[in-house]
Design a protein that fits this description.
Layout lengths: L1 H4 L9 H7 L9 H5 L11 H13 L19
C-alpha cells in the first residue's frame, strides 16, 4: 500500500479480500518481529525489507526474493 500511496503501483482491488478469497492466511507484524530489528546486522538498508527479514526469522518462513542482500542474513530464501 505504501507504493500505491507513492504512485509507484496501481492496484484496483482489495489485496486483503483477494488474499483471503485465495485461501492465504494473513500474517501480522508482531512485537517479537520488531524487537529483532535492534540486533539485525545493517546489511540491508531498506526498512521494510528488514521487517520482512525479522518476520521470516521469528516464524521460520522462507522469503521469495531476487534481492542479493537477503543472502547476508540467516533467513531461508526461495
Amino acid at each position: 500500500m505504501i507504493k500505491t500511496s507513492l504512485g509507484k503501483l496501481d492496484i484496483n482491488f482489495d489485496p486483503i479480500e483477494l488474499a483471503e478469497k485465495s485461501g492465504f492466511d494473513l500474517l501480522d507484524y508482531r512485537s517479537k518481529d520488531a524487537v529483532l530489528l535492534k540486533d539485525l546486522p545493517y546489511h540491508h538498508k531498506d526498512p521494510f525489507d528488514r521487517m520482512l527479514i525479522t518476520q521470516s526469522l521469528t516464524h521460520n518462513f522462507p522469503i521469495m526474493t531476487v534481492d542479493s542482500q537477503f543472502k547476508k542474513y540467516s533467513c531461508k530464501l526461495i
